[in-house]
Amino acid sequence: MATFITLTSRTSGTKLRINADHLTSYFVGAVSGTDLVFEGGHDFAVTETPEQIDALLGVTESAAVAMPKMVAALEMAREYLSDWTGGKPCLDAIDAALRAARGE
Question: How large is the C-alpha radius of gyration of the chain?
Answer without folding.
Answer: 19
